[in-house]
Amino acid sequence: MKKKICLVVSSPLSVNTLLLHPISKLSQHYDVYLAVNAKPGELFPAIENAVTVLPVPLQRKISPLNDLLALFKLIVLFRKYRFDLVHSVTPKAGLLGMMAAFIAGIKTRIHTFTGQVWVTRRGFAKTLLKSMDKLIALLSAHNLVDGLSQRQFLLDEGVVSQKTSSVLAQGSLFGVDIERFKMDTQTRKRIRDKLQITDAETVFIFVGRLTRDKGVLDLAAAFAGLNNPQTHLLVVGVDEEQMTEQMRALASDCNTRIHMVGFTDKPEDYMTAADVLCLPSYREGFNNVVIQSAAMGIPTVGSKIYGVVDSIAENETGLFFQAGDITGLQAAMEILADDKELRLKLGQQAQDRVKKYFTSDQLSSAWLAFYQERV
Predict the structure, then answer these.
(1) Which residues of 297-329 are buried (b: 16+ CB within 10 A; e: fewer)?
(2) How much is the pLDDT for 255?
(3) What is the per-residue pLDDT across 119-158, written as a single tens digit (0 to 9) for each?
(4) Calpha distance 51→307 (Å, rounded)
(5) Does residue 62 carry a pLDDT above 80?
(6) Helix ranges (DSSP H) in the chain
(7) Domains of the chain
(8) Residue 209's closest CA among 245, 176, 241?
(9) Which pTM value belongs to this model?
(10) Under a CB-based contact definition with an 8 Å cutoff, are residues 202 and 232 in contact?
(11) Which residue in 358, 372, 366 sits closest to 144, CA to CA?
């Protein structure tokens, strides 16, 4: 009889984008349950077929009444199923999942830290959010961190301890599916033709949520300052903070070369049309978009912050600049826009590094080995 484990995640989008490969691997050895705020049909069929879905009204944002309801439901579920292991991913799922597992008497409680919201906050908000992370770590029997530099940051901040925290393999939560994220010349041509971009032009791409913390306003300003009309900026992701109009205002003289795509469940199609990934974030965990693009031979220009320094090898797979330094970002973009040979060299080295350290098979195997040591 297989042992029972439960993964706790706030949104179906996170499950679909983060956990497909780990779930596929784990379901071969365990009965996997998934506590998630999902309606029928929101999860990929491959995931729904591999797990038992437990709908729980988890929300990313703080909502006291709803959070209490979700906590109560998790406690009831954990007492009913008596899981051998409960593992939470994402902050809200971690807080409620670890509280419920602790109250329900689940011995093996694991949380994965993937980045800290409070890093860019000030005052009471920062104190409150940081205290929540400390509480999650305290309630967990063990904490996984998705990168070496982020673990060191959490150690320095007193959030986690040396004894009860670790990083799987070389970092990353779930690695890269190198069969999915690979360069495709036909798709590259199709997307570029659709956007009226010639093969001779250089495309910078941003993939992620459009928020101030992601540095997208800095990216728009830096792109506007490029002295190269043969460049385009491709922006892929959900606009969560009404950034689109502000970005266009900052780059008003080159709006025809900025392409806003919005959400897509096939980011790889747009990555294959790109030459350089831009990651101007002010805070990050280990950024998987970096290694996804790297798997396709695309180098990255990224801010030199904890988390990102694990996914980019400086001057080997990409270039760094200081977070918030628009001039530095612009300079790095200009270097790669003007030097195709360097772009290709960094891209090839990035691809080699992903295959060596960060494939989804490697991370899923490390995840399974971690579980097998504990249950």
Answers:
(1) bbbbbbbebbbbbbbbeeeebbbbbebebbebb
(2) 92
(3) 989 999 999 999 999 999 999 999 999 999 999 999 999 9
(4) 30
(5) no
(6) 12-18, 20-26, 45-48, 64-81, 91-104, 123-139, 148-156, 185-195, 216-224, 244-250, 267-271, 288-295, 308-311, 326-338, 340-357, 360-372
(7) 4-175+360-372 (3.40.50.2000), 185-357 (3.40.50.2000)
(8) 241
(9) 0.91
(10) yes
(11) 366
In one-letter notation, the amino acid at residue 365 is S
Q: What single-letter amino acid sits at 369?
A: A
C-beta contacts of 265-269 below 8 A and 24+ residues apart: 265/16, 267/207, 267/236, 267/292, 268/180, 268/181, 268/292, 268/296, 269/187, 269/191
Find tokens 């879905």 and name the residue: 53
Quick one: CA dihedral 80, 81, 87, 92, positive or negative? Answer: negative
Angle CA 204–285–159, to nearest 5: 160
User: Alpha carbon 159 to chain centroid distance?
Assistant: 20
